Fold these 3 entries.
Entry 1:
Amino acid sequence: MSRPALQVSALDGHYGDAQALAGVSLTIEAGSFVSVIGANGAGKTTLIRTIAGMLKPTRGEILYRGRRIDGLDPADICELGILQVPEGRLIFPSLTVAENLDIGGSLRRTRARRRQNMADVFEMFPRLAERRRQKAGTLSGGEQQMLAIGRCLMGEPDLVMLDEPSLGLAPNLADEMFEIVGWLHREGRTILLVEQNVEECLARSDRAYVMENGRIVLEGRGAELMADDRLRAAYLGL
Amino acid sequence: MVELYLKVAAGGLLIGTVYALIAIGLTIIFGVMRVVNFAHGEMVVMGMYLGYALWTLFAIPAIPAALIAAVVLFGLGVFLQVTVVSRFVGRPQHSQFILFIAFALVITGLHLMLMGPDARSVMAPISFQTYSVGGLRLDAARVQAAATALVMILALVAFLRFTFIGRAIRAAADNPLGAEVVGIRSGRVYAVTAGIGLACAGAAGALVSPLFDAQPFLAPEFTLLAFIIVIIGGLGSLTGALIGGLLIGVAEGFAALLINPAMKSMFSYGLLIAVLLLRPAGLFGGREAR
Amino acid sequence: MVRRERKRTGRPRGVVAATAFFCALFLVPHLLDDAWVAVLTLVLFFAFVGQAWNLMMGHVGLLSLGHALFLGIGGYTTAVLLQDYGMTPWIGIPAGALVAAMVGAGIAWLGFRFSVRGVYFALLTIAFAEFFRILFSNWPLIGGTGGYFLRVVPEDNVPLLSLRGGADHFYYLFFVLFLVGLIVSARLVRGRIGMFWSAIREDEDAARALGVRSFRLKVLVVAVSAAMTACGGGAFALMNGSLFPNTLMGMQMSIQIILAPIIGGLGTLFGPFVGAVFVVLVLEFSRDLGQTAGVYGLSTLIYGLTVLGVILYMPEGIWPRLVRLAQPLRRDR
């Protein structure tokens, strides 16, 4: 078995005195598609932020390709090839589309190839190319989401963590989003997808984890979980 | 009569440009770090003293002195940010306020110790020269100060648009969390921002040293002036600080002329109150008033 | 930052300590010489006024950086009513408090009505304070920048009636104010109103959703804080015999007012006193040092460095830090 790309062991995370993550353990094999699902407040975003280095875990460890990364600066973790498409997109509204992408590509390891990467992103998202000089704040929700993904791609990520990319998007756009995520996976990247939209997730995932109140309560292969009765009752309303 | 008004307006625009430079320093610090530099005026006065010292000791005129002051204060800003202010970024506002008051006290103390309480005037030939522009006589020192300030402001704008760290600063101001997400190192960004903020104040101080006498007690006035401009223009907006500076420069000139000069500040404060109540985001502040 | 000091088990200890403390304060003029009495009078003044400011900030979370305004209103009202209208300060001081309460309520009303928050609210208080300071400076009726002077007390002065007397007298005046201020604050903070204030400080929207009339309560705290401060201002005016708008109502004074409670410990009852002791002592010490060294500005430098040190290493304040040091065996933090 190839060494897992990401290994999270017994992670605890706190906001002040409130515990947000409790004993979270998960494994992401290189090149696989892993989903984390759960309701609002289950701790999914906290998990992603902790992996990204924005929050320091109070216990446990995170290994990437065998190296410990918990406790590292977020910027260092980006340089290792772990990038986010964060919840709420978090693009820079008063910067232009091109500038947003440029910043995404300004990591040390990708700086030299910025131009080429930006051309690739524009080819993939022609709508962004049309609006390259527009301020990002004027873009629609779907376009901002594309921008967030494009910005992430500029950093040449190996592991892409997406936090609710379909949130707030119309159904056809949400579908497009999942298509893109699928494409990212097929191109060889490791995907960690956090979602509330359970069906789409499970259908594409190699492995999935269900979180509740900061803990992992269920895990298994995507297809298995789709058939799991508890899950179906809780999340699919069946 | 018209000539008098024109002169006052022109003088106001000129000094307003320098005020704008001061305000830009304040607004960039707030826009990026959400920290209010209540010791900003002390930094301006430091620039004034530097201008005075460079002239008296080395006969360096205001413009090169302003560049030197900018460099010195840039260094000071980086130093203070990295050593002390960085620990205060999450702290409550009153704590931050006291921190900057402490800075102000320390700097004023040093000024008093090194320079004494008496006013220090720069007696340079330029203080007495005038230019004749379209029939108006304008102080040469004012014109040069305004021109230099404008050049510095444009240089700053270019820096923010075209350099990587400039873009990183704008990104951090736009969305601090987003900046973390894309791997911008906030420590570096904040240090440079603090440096730039103080450099603006120091350069402006050196530019006005031929115009006003350097005194430690001018500092609170400069701080409040910078605040008024920044609020009116919009916290975090460079354009706002520029326009605000020009506006206040002209408004104060006319207020001094038409109303009792001692009360011209009252007009500015009244304006500040009105803006805070009615449009706290200021003229150009897009962001919601926090 | 409010810690309701529920000294359940320590209650008898706390009460004894407090009583001892107040007795000690009471006996000061009999035990120490005039110089010390004067210093401690100043301490009590800043403790009292700091406590007033603390009501707004520590308990409701409203930052006022222009509090010297109320000092000035109280001082000038009391002085003018005494000097030009012959009214005793027993009426003058409450009158000043009333005026200050109205002005404070007015500013608060405007601020809250227009949703001025956070740093903008603080700047609003500065703007109003400066506006009025300049106004008072240019008001001939009260002497403007030249100052307003109270006539010297006549030979047959009865301190209790005129509220003016010697050093001891003013010590007790401020002692009483401090004590009354503490009692009033404690009653308010520990009562229903205090509970609502805390709720507003923690999460105003949640409080309002529960029916708490936050607007009124916020205006109330500002009015009470202003009134208390004005009483301090009135007493201060009587003690000094002269008022100058630039010192009494300036930014420097506003800063001094808030230094004590912030350094001493926000939201605690004894924080402002401890902070006032610290602030006044450091000021005196640094002034002495500066004078003996003969270096102008040294006092300001030392003062600034000390404040810097405290705010860096004791962010919650001196009093909470002392409390923690003295009780290492307590279970909670």
Entry 2:
Amino acid sequence: MSSEWPLWEIFIRSQHGLAHKHVGSLHAPDAEMAIRSARDVYTRRNEGVSIWVARSADIHASSPGDKEALFEPSNDKVYRHPTFFPMPEEVKHI
Amino acid sequence: MADPIPDDRQLFDYVLRLADNGVVLAQRLGEWVGKGPALEEDIALTNVGLDLLGQGRMWLAYAREIEARHAPPGRDEDDLAFLRDSGEFRNLLLVEQPNGNYADTMARQFLFDQWHALLLRALSGSKDGRIAAIAAKAGKEVRYHVERSADWVVRLGDGTGLSHRRMQDAIDALWMYTGEMFAVDAVERQLIAAGVAADAAALREPWRSSVAAVLAEATLATPADGWMQGMNGRGGKQGLHTEHFGHMLAEMQILARSYPGARW
């Protein structure tokens, strides 16, 4: 039914992180109310310092069926991991 | 019977007025739990209720301190909330009005929030340090309430034909309870002169103009000031309530009265 409020995905940036993390979703008629509702539904215990909302319909996802094709090839290519470089002694904090 | 707290009687009454607005409106909003028009709105509205309950508790704790100066240990928050009869409650008639439909609830909230924000801002400059501190803390929460309820008035007023009609009906029906918010009686007069209470009469113009601005944006008509309920010292602030209040209070207090001292 078209009178149903659309679904929004909610991202919260916590006190301790720099990145916004996906926390869940909710229904709202527009972005403004989605942010307000996100404040009430997801940040009541002082979890966040910033809120992003995005229409769920605008998020495009990879297909679970493509998992092998997308991710498995990296498993046997150890040279893609930077573990073979000798590190000079004097370089700290790497 | 001699007044047990003669010197602070007015201050005690005034703090109860502040407390009872929060406690009673929180109870009304709590009646929406599980019945909101959408899950998100159910949570959001009752969060506002919890804010108001928290503020009510702070005021009641202060009321107890005042009472304890004269009649120690004074009644605690639970005693004051759950064991007073309706004639001892000092809330505005507006906040005890039934929830009705969602437009009724949001109109009540809007008319109250706009006044509440102005009142708390004025009280944050009170010469009574406790009143000033509680008002400053509560004011932050109420700034959010103001935005939320004004937003709903605009959405429903400027929404469909049906929502517009219901919101206009709600504003019209509740308007007669708004006069009491600005009525200053003997309890307040001395406290205002002492710089402790806020001069409610001075909030009238700022309230009218911000309410009228939101109503205009919502394509709603601002009602004319006709006859007002609870004026001339015969309103909720003096303990004279509308017929709805006793029913609300019965539900609110039944547990505490049936099982004295109940804990969980």
Entry 3:
Amino acid sequence: MGTPTPPPASTSAELDGETALGLLRTMWRIRCFEERVAQLKRTLQVHGLIHLSIGGEGVAAAICGQLRDDDTVYSGHRAHGHAIAKGAPLDRVMAELMGRSDGLCRGLGGSMHLVDRAHGLLGATGVVAGNIPLAVGNALAARLRGSDQVTVVFFGDGAVQTGYFSESVNLAALWELPLILVCENNGFAEFTPRSAHTTVERVCDAVAPYRFPCQSVDGTDVGALFAVFAADLDLARRGRGPLLLECMTHRRRGHYEGDQEAYRDALADAEWQRRDPLARLQADAIAQRWLDEAGAGALEQGARAEVEQAVSFARASPFPALELAGELVYASER
Amino acid sequence: MKELDNQRLVWIYTQMLRIREFEERVKGTFEEYPGVIRGHTHLADGAEASIVGSLATLRPSDQLMATYRCHGYPLALGTDPKAMMAEIYGRSTGLCGGYGGSMHLVDTERGFLGTSGIVGQGIPQATGAAYAAQIRKQDQVVLCFFGDGASKQGAFSESLNVASLWKLPIVYVMENNSYNVVTRVEQEDANAAAGEPLAMKAKAFSMPGVTVDGGDPIAVYEAVGAAVDRARSGAGPTLVESKVYRLSAHGNIIAPPGVPLHYPEHEAIEVFGAREEYEAALRGDPVPRFRARLISDGSLTVDAADQIAAHVREEMQVAVQFGIDSPYPEPEAALHNVYA
Amino acid sequence: MAREIPYIAAINEAIHQEMARDESVLYFGQNLATTENDEFLKAFGSDRVRVTPISETAEIGMAVGAAIAGMRPVVELYMAEFMLVAMDQVVNEAPRFRYMSGGRVKVPLVLKAGYGFTAGWAGQHTGSIYGMFMGIPGLKVALPATAADAKGLMATAIRDENPVCYFHHYLLTLEPGEVPEGEYLVPFGQASVRRSGGDVTIVATGWMVGKALAAAESLAAEGIEAEVIDPRTLVPLDIDTILSSVEKTGHVVLVDQATRHASASALIAAEIADHGFSALKAPIKQVTALDASVPYSEPMEAYVLPDEAKILCAVHQVLGTAPVAA
């Protein structure tokens, strides 16, 4: 990893200009949002445990951007990107992170537990792999409804060693559910490298006994990822499943904000910085003349402005009425 | 792996017969002594060749853990059947003092570390015992027995991943009897539904997986023996799928107190109406099959085989009588053993 | 010789000392000993100190099996809630194995789990779930509130012959306290009277001990002397110390960060009602978290948790006194 490598190949071969710009816009919105969240966390304006996906925006954008509102996404503790790419409004996500009543979950969930029914983000869970059986259940429900809705569940490589994963994969395979399992393999489960977790090198190997379609793709090559997922989505839409897509990716920040990152040396950071999916796609878009430097700057500025509006919106939103803490324990009406 | 000499072959047959007779006597107790056995029992008839073939590979210092279908292992290890029967009858002379019953036999002196009554949950425990063996560095190997149903438990995959990662000295012996309780394996297992052997699951853990005819004790001995050698050499775990056919129903009927308990017909007949499947299994019964083989190759005479059978019948009759004659524990003993 | 070290350092010191003392003590779990610089790894090697995958059922199940095979594993679970992923092993295997064997085996292990991280971790990482383990015969439950107890209870837990749930409070992690050097054991089942007083008995655990002591100081300024008792272990529970305090004061306030109906205080209240009813001059009052999952938003989070003001209010209620206006 120490030796210089040639610049990554063009990522945009599979994209048209309009799609590429849409992806870039989503990625800038996620990037700016999360950079702002990191600042707000340092000044304690958002509290609790915050996991950022900076460096991994390409996966969220390429996958969620192709889904319909009535397709379902389940995410986990690192959910901001998935939520934003699936259509959750920035201001309401920010309000949630700041614990306000206009937050997506009225301030009850916070960063790790985002839910936005209207946009098909049915949930994010704070326990590794806990979302996978939920997604299997969702896919089963979609099948029972006779719909062509597709369920996508995001999880990290650490989740693959859990019982949740293997139990769920067996059932999804047995029942041939329209479920796309998306593993964001950043090579680290929380703080420890993959080699401390398993002898199985690729997540695809872990589902080898089931013989369902499984691919490993470079998660920083947004164009390639977009095309691969489009094919998967087409299969799932036609009732095929499950499928697994392993996205080799990288998180540029710690496991959580405040992580001391004692393991950082092993991460080959410089190399991944060169493969920043946002920078790659933007450079390609400029080379393709879909965008000029000024247009790129405008994309970023637009995203930053939107994030600032979201912060203002969140700050203006009141904290929830305290009684809400008790009122929401049980559902009271159908 | 040692070659099986004549004496060892006869030992294997004798143990198979002892397990069969013991299980027949457990089943018979429901008729002979109604009410004596409470709760749930699970019999190993049909799996004798797999059990004894597996245990024949072990050294005295090796260890094993199993499931609630656990009568066979300690019998083959030399545990006193009187104490086992008394345990199943809930008597103070029982192997575990009447605290555990049929599903929870333990005989640590013989390396039988115990069982779990919950499907799949003994697998991490055996894996932990293998971890202990690895760091104790006395060349011990642990055998872990479980059924096909358990292989869908998270406990299974989590454990096999760790064992493969840490190269633990363990052999996972999956006794695949094609049924989990009343569900056929292809109804709940994606590999089985695809017509694949369950040993294929080993691929997910970069571990060797082999399938063997669990009705043939010599084939089991060779497959498990190779896996034990591999484990002992430090090369790590193996998954052995041993295909068996359980000749009794999953367990005795489950009924409220007062309703006499008994063994129903096998699920193939009772649930699926597949009498021919069951009768084919009976025709392949591993116990007479192995007897015929030993007689035909001259390892055993008919007279000697009959003598063994008579001796085993007598031994298990004594065990039943011992259990029946034994006292119940003092009720106050219920509060002992809560804490060590 | 006592010196001040943080709560978390005291826990680590106990594990370190016990591992040095007894080579059957193992330490494994997620995210530990991941670099060669790890002090446990350096001292005890990778046989006894291991990082595991995210596989709670395997981690705890392996601890049970290794314990049956003669080891004394300490499982690092980080979050108490992660135990819930492996509830069968915690509830149905570890504490029952020995019993059902008729005492033929023992299962000495420690499940080390942080709890109560009510600092914006929302509903899945903040629970005070020890109460649900009090009803499991065969399990012991330790709940250190000070750095010294953190060390002494961990050492005792490791030497105990039974499975022990050792719950350390996340908000106390960096809290310094005087901790004896060298071997230091705090016996199980021996409550600590943190403050003496004759007017009201306050029983509190974990992070709540500090809140109760702060409340006691405020009460003292009003001329009310509270006795503050920290049970330190919930199983075994030192009910005698609590009852003799109640004999003296006749008034009881129980403070618990858990939700009311899963709290230790509900069980302690039942024991007091059962064995000490005649000493009571007023009904027992419990100050617990409200029956809700812990909400994320900071004001709501504070709203559901017990605090000093709620303790003061409860004390005045049982004493029939009017609170001094703040």
